Amino acid sequence: MGSAALSARLSGPGALDPGPASSRDMEGLLRRVELDLGIDPRQLALAPGGACVVALVPGRWLAGLRERKVPPGPCPRVEGLGDVEARTLLQRSVQRLPAGWARVEIHGLRKRRLAYPLALGSAPAPEEPAGGPETLTRFMRDTAAQNYRNLWHGAYQAYGRPYRRGPAPPEGSALGAVRQALQRVYGCPFLPVGRAAQCPSPAREAPSAPRPAPVCPDLLRAEALLESPEMLYVVYPHVRYCLHDVVTFSPAKLSNSHAKVLFILFHVLQAMEACHRQGLACGALSLSHVAVDEKLCSQLQPDLSAYEAPEEEEEEGKASLKNVPEAAPLRTPEPRKGEGPGDPICQEELRRLVLDWVHGRISNFHYLMQLNWLAGRRWGDPNYHPVLPWVVDFTTPNGRFRDLRKSKFRLNKGDKQLDFTYEMTRQAFVAGGGGSGGEPPHVPHHISDVLSDITYYVYTARRTPRAVLCGHVRAQWEPHEYPASMERMQSWTPDECIPEFYTDPTIFRSIHPDMPDLDVPAWYSSGEEFVAAHRALLESREVSQDLHHWIDLTFGYKLQGKEAVKEKNVCLHLVDNHTHLTSYGVVQLFDQPHPQRLVGPSALGPEPPVIPRPLIQRVRETAGREDVSGQLTDGPNGLVLEATPCESSWAGDRPLGGDDDLEQGTEALDSISLAGKAAEQSCPSSLQASGHPFSSASTARLGRRNKAAGVDVGEGDDGRIVLPEGFNPLQALEELEKFGNFMARGLRGRVEAPEDSPAEPALKLEDLLQRDMQALGVLVAEIVFAARLRTLRPHAPLRERFLTVHGLCSRYPKEIPVPLQSVLETLLQLREPVEPPLPRGPGRGRLSAYKPISQGLPPPSPSQLLSPYSSVVAFPSYFSSLYKFILLYQTRKVEDEVQGRELVFQLWQQLDGILREITPEGLEILLPFVLSLMSEQHTAVYAAWYLFEPIARALGPKNANKYLVKPLIGAYENPGHLHGRFYLYTDCFVAQLMVRLGLQAFLSHLLPHVLQVLAGVETSQEETKCLGGVAEDEEIEDGEEGPGPCGFGEAIQMEGDPGSSGLGLLDYTSGVSFHDQADLPESEDFQAGLYVSGSPQPPEPEALSLGRLSDKSSPSEASLGEDRPGDEAGLPREKSSQDLKQSEGSEDEEEEDVEGTGQGGQAGEEEEEEEQDGSPVVSELPLPETGVSVEAGLPNDDGNGEEEDLTDHSEDKEQKILLDTACKTVRWLSARLGPTVTSRYVARNLLRLLTSCYVGATRQQFTGSSGSDASPLNSGNIYQKRPVLGDVVSAPVLNCLMHVACLYGEPVLTYQYLPYISYLVAPGGGGGPSRLNSRKEAGLLAAVTLTQKIIVYLCDTTLMDILPRISHEVLLPVLSSLTSLVTGFPGGSQARTVLCVKTISLIALICLRIGQEMVQQHLSETVATFFQVFSLVHELQGQVPRPEAPSPGEGRVLEVPFSDGQPRPVDLALLDELQKVFTLEMAYMTYVPFSCLLGDVIQKIVPNHTLVGQLAGQYLESASPVGQDPMNLAPMPSASPEQDAQGRGVNHDDVHSGTFGSVLVGNRIQIPIDPQPENPEPHGPSSGAPSSSGGLCDGGGEENSLKRDLPRGAHGLSGNWLAYWQYEIGVSQHDAHFHFHQIRLQSFLGHAGAVKCVAALGSEDFFLSGSKDRTVRLWPLYNCGDGTSETAPRLVYAQHRKSIFHVSQLEASQQVVSCDGAVHVWDPFTGKTVRTVEAWDSRAPWTAVAVMPAPHTSITLASADSTLRFVDCRKPGLQHEFRLGGGLNAGLVRSLAVSPSGRSVVAGFSSGFMVLLDTRTGLVLRGWPAHEGDILQIKAVEGSTLISSSSDHSLTVWKELEQKPTHHYKSPSDPIHTFDLYGSEVVTGTVANKIGVCSLTEPASQATTKLSSENFRGTLTSLAVLPTKRHLLLGSDNGAIRLLA
């Protein structure tokens, strides 16, 4: 590919991207790169602007460059890719590259343009990086020295230099300076390439040293520095996104956050300082030179092209707007000269362009291409190709013209569909809370794009390779699916057209043999003719007169706002406020209606019509006037006829109303023209007025200024000026006088000034560095005014950009954010007039000179702006520490978990210092890095452990739920066996989750994942989802009720919120904004930023959990399984000093109650049980040695060896630790949550999980089988319950379920577990399926297993009471499935066999419990049903011939008559399965024990006992020859020695009621006692396995126990607690209404005065109360007794001096705020006062208090003088102070409420007046008379809703900014003096002791309940709702507090 191809690439359609570089420069750079680096020209493309070359290179070639090896030859080519594919891969928006290939940017510097001299100057040595932080003393010293140096240089320049003609200071060439600076900055030498590489050089001969790092990580690293004889090259990695992309395509990324802009500036300044220190100027920086990533980490890429001196011929003329494919001239016929300082700025360029198009001087095509270029569209980019309108539909020869007033998308889809799309997305947007969960998935819109990449490839399908089409359009190659003709193409596409259809005939010719050419309409003979005609149609009169409407739709004001909605043109990209980065999108250029093109009246043609003569004369006069006006346009007073303005700023900032107001448009465009001419004329005059910088006038001014300054600087202590030795100020005058005398007297002449001006000083490096600072100022201004600079042509010269932003800063000063005003004023010198350009060529020197001293500081430099003592940029104080945090995150490579742990630990050590000072905006910057750590594999667990708590504390519960729940779920769901994963299951971490996320959020989202591990780490996510919602095969009707007190259907629907696992959570690792913007006003939910919490975290927290995690926690034995009697009580005590967990610190004694006295007599057995606790429960346990306990492999030390253990132990050991930890956490949770929440969330999820343990054939295999052919029954009998693998897996789940029963008593078994079991075994509807599904099959196994557990724990009385239910609802349905002749098992005979063994074992257990007589009375039907199946199978063997049996897949059902006379349906396909299960062995296995157990009774209850006995006998005969009992039947359970030793065997059961004494003994005699040789091996280890994981009720002999007693503890359910609990487990969890039943649950006595306020803590396990007795008390909320018990306070705060009227808790710091006229902030764990805020005026005490919602830590205080003050607990003094009175006599502020977002605060006055205040600005948003009486209480809820109650007996619901209330409730007799919220309802209380429930959303309705004196005595004074537990706390005037439900 030679020069022809290069020039084709430069001059063809690809030249859409013009820039400052000339076409010849571009071509030269491409050719040099091709020759010097040997890269194939197909793999090269010019970047937009032509400043660099983008190359596609192989990774190995690039790696060789990085290792400083000269490329060994030409760069390899991309094999198998054509020119089109290679060109596409070079486009910016294309991200996927072939494997092993990379893109790089090659920047070139021509050496011949670096030959000019560059004075490096005598600047002081670069400051060495200081060892410590900068001090104010050093900053002042450096500033004074710099000022002194600058003043001296100025004075020398003015007075000393003109008299010195000595040698100039040594100056080097720019080439040498640039080369050395680049090598220092990037830390690598230049490598010779091209011809230079053939010469030996030291760099080539030296061995490749390790590559040093660049001097600053904020500089974009260079892959290599290369040098050829003519060029210097810098090879950079390809920049994916730059700052220009952010402000153009993703402006929401920076919106509402000044800190993000400042942080980018901070990064840029760090990079500039590093460059300046090494002597490298950064050039004319623009937004494109700042590379950013999704987390807004910025890297600077210096603009090296600014070093090149422009050639003279290039200085004379460059077109401002580049050529496009157009033969006509660009603008006016006369070419404009130069791009120099006299050029108008960009708006004038665009004005000329608009005027030229309006008056027809340029074509439609050319104008539209210019607009595409201004919008940044790139030729050949499939995602961002230029667009042109479709103008005709090709149905007729001249075409039916398209309606350009509507978008193509609207024409294609129709208004109805667009309205439907908009309405559906709007409703979804509103339902989703306006995007309160982050970037809203649904935003109201009509269209998504004007040209998609798929449409582009369909358009160009004939010229695009097949592989590309298959990768983008559709994977399967279907060439005939592509539109075959232009007519079909135009009617098919909803997108706009592309320029190729107007310019390129080749687009119709196909390169595919099986795809025909694209047909042009029949009336065109060729593609060339079609293109010419299509182009003519585009330029036609019909198109021209309406084209401005299309421009408005595609680039103009109809893209946003009301006009976009009206035109059905709302574009998703512009309204979704996306924060992900992209390099393409829709860009709005104009915000005013576009002017129409002047096409003249349609009646006028070139030939005059035949009409009367006077009329002809009149028409000619009109035409003459039009010609004159066209000529006058170029004059100073030119007129323009019809048009409307393009920018509001052009028309004097006066927006115009209406779309086509011709008169106003004409006036506006006239003003545009006049203003443009005036601007053009002003520029030359300013040029002429500007003199040489060293002219006499400027020198005099400079001298005076410097002298004056010199006096100030030089004054000593005594006021004298110390002059240098030998300095004589009069010497110059004396010399001049002597010279004059000599000339006048001696030579008879006059003194004349020399004619030649002094030589122009050489360019200095200092000038370039000052230009860098000015370019930085321009860059910052471009960020601020990004929306107004869309029309600035891309890659404009620096001076043009400077003039543009200078004008914008002067015109719109209020749009500049406050933190950026000072820096822009300093860098751009906004208060100074714009100086004419300095004489040196443009682009090289500075734009204007800075003053030597401005406001006491030297000219700005990066180090000065970065200094904390400089006031130029107000960088927040936490920036430096945040910068170090991010730097550490970026520089550390994490390749395994050890490195991940070290990195997270180091970051955690830095985090505390950041969070102490950080602001909400800073948290937005920090959070994406934390989320990345929590999402990456090697750091997820440790990041959650170390970083979750401090970050969640800073965020607050609301934002923590929004951002942190998804990564936490990812950490729990990660299937990998990660070291230390058990940390996430420790009770202290779970406590952190509950406190920081809120109880309800934890229960709904994370609890299922914590419980899931109990069933094995590899449990699939499908099983997790089963915990969060109803599985597909378990869905039942809501109304289906079971026999128990709770509906069985509801019992399985309440595990959690429906989306607990499949949350629609978004990924925020790419960026965070707490200001979620939305287009609907109701959606402003998260508008408030974050605030940091106040409580300082201890540097070395004490023990947090089980086990050590680096240095964070102390050792704890519990994580490793060393259990001890006091363990459960000791764990929380270890954590009690943690201020970060509000729950544990206050729960130590409660845990002792729960685990100690709560277990009654079991406390003494704990150690014994725990020892049998640790048997292995792994997901799959094929190995027998897994039966050893956890303690066996772990050291019993204090945990010091844990590091080695975690690394060296096998995954089995880690699994055991994980299970052990999770079990203890679940048991701790069960005690902490209370009975109702535990049953609703923990127990129900565990029951669901139990079924999952038996899913799959693997889980149904017997453990310990030596081979696959071994009989499943040969190792045990029905009493020994030989376990399957599912039993091993389910053991932890069962143990936790039994622990819940032990905590809360027998009702859990009978009212919750048994109804669920009945549901599991209930037959399916619809007449019964022919096959079970796998989950139903597993449910049967789980149900029988759980029933066995339950039977053991039921007392005899309860067992006999519910025996009929067990028989009819459990046993018979199980037997129905087990013995069914038509129901097949998915697991086949194996599953049926397992169920058979488990079922008969269960029946035998019940028989042993109840005795022979009760069996005959209650279980005769059950036993007979089971044994009957043997007769049926036996008869089927004889009746149904084998060959007729169909294959299992066919399932043929026949009616078969049986001997009892009843025909039964039989599925012939199940015969094999039935015969494999009900074998002779099974008959013997079941009949012999039952005959022994029941004696003669079996003959009465089993009709076919004779047949079964015969089958058993046949098996005995066939198995007897072995010489021993074939069954190896074990003895009855209590015969084992260890069982006797424990004293809990059946031998001793005769002391209980319902025992079976001699019957058992008699039965035992008949069972052979010969199992010992085989029993220990296969059965011993296995029997222990199911009892592992430390269940409270476990014991080694439980598997063989017939009966065990549940402990009777303080938390057992009885009385009112039992009644309430029974009701609660039957209520649907999705019932959003509050039901008050007036059940008294607990009493809290201790206050001596009336209880004025009650507040529950977030985790609902404690609450606070304030009283008239001047104390605040902290109370625990644990169930105890039967509802009559009284609870003592946990802590009493007695520092107040008056009656307390407010108490609440700061969410972030967990500190308590209480007020008695003075505010006390105190620690609820220690009771110590943190801060006291007294009223400023003792006569105006605090009358109302409200705490700001997290993440804020502010307290809002209202004083008696109607002043609102904000106090931050972490800082002294006030934050804000606002006056509320406003001249009104509204009375005292009675109540305050802060909105959930923290954006507004509402105050209620004693007069009934309410005031709404904006907390950010202090502006009063609204004040209105809300009530007629004293306002008693106000609350603010989501959705900008306020609720107020008043002494006028009313409760009113308001929208913040709406005049009328939405709901109004009136209490008939008493005012509602206290209320609280429950969801969308209000729970109210009155002094008449009436509790009411009102709705906020539904039509006004109120239910009222009068409190009975039995449940509540005294007068109701305060009320609080516990939303998760659904309880009410009621305070009374007698000091008592009652808990009611």
Question: How would you characterize this protein structure?
Answer:
- The protein has 1941 residues and is an alpha+beta fold.
- Helices cover 38% and strands 11% of the residues.
- The protein contains 59 helices and 42 strands.
- The strands form 11 sheets. The protein has a 6-stranded mixed sheet with strand order 1-2-3-8-7-6, sandwiched between helices.
- Helix 34 packs antiparallel against helix 35 and helix 45 runs antiparallel to helix 46.
Q: What would you report as the Rg, rounded to the nearest angstrom?
A: 43 Å
Portion in beta strands: 5-15%
Number of strands: 42
Measured distance between first and last alpha carbons = 85 Å
Mean pLDDT: 73
Shape: globular
Which assembly state applies to the chains in this document? single chain
* Count of runs of 4 or more consecutive helical residues: 59
Strand order of the largest sheet: 1-2-3-8-7-6
Which class best fits the helix and strand makeup?
alpha+beta
Helix content: 25-40%
Instruction: Tell me about the largest β-sheet.
Output: 6 strands, mixed
Low-confidence stretches: 1-21, 123-130, 200-210, 313-345, 435-439, 615-717, 1018-1022, 1029-1064, 1076-1208, 1266-1276, 1443-1450, 1522-1598
